[in-house]
């Protein structure tokens, strides 16, 4: 088993409350029939949520992602995922917890844009 797969499995067991809440909306093709995978290895990274068919990765970010070191790391991840054909959509935890319907609409708009390009 690869190191990325082991890490993904561990992250599935340790998901944040925001990740769990958003996963309940997306799992089982719950968003207009789009299939999402959670904690999915892509290009040496583990994406929080990924829709392979649309080439969309949704990252649910904690407040720490505003620090310069985290912003650099996030940019490197986004670049690497883009080289694998994925667009990265970053959603703050606070938005998932406080405006789930708005987050759902944002993800759906990104999905529709990706599949109709």
Automatic annotation (TrEMBL):
Pfam family, one: DUF559
Domain DUF559: 3-112
CDD domains hit by this protein: Endonuclease_DUF559 (cd01038)
UniProt superkingdom: Bacteria
Protein name: DUF559 domain-containing protein
Protein source organism: Methylobacterium oxalidis
């Amino acid at each position: 088993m690869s190191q990325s797969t082991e890490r993904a499995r561990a992250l599935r067991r340790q998901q944040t409350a925001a990740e769990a809440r958003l996963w309940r909306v997306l799992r089982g093709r719950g968003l207009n029939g789009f299939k999402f995978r959670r904690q999915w290895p892509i290009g040496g990274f583990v994406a929080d949520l990924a829709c392979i068919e649309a080439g969309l990765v949704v990252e649910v970010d904690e407040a720490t992602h505003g620090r310069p070191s985290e912003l650099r790391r996030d940019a490197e991840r986004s670049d690497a995922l883009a080289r694998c054909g994925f667009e990265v959509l970053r959603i703050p935890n606070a938005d998932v917890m406080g405006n789930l319907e708005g987050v759902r609409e944002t993800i759906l708009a990104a999905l529709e844009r990706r599949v109709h390009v």
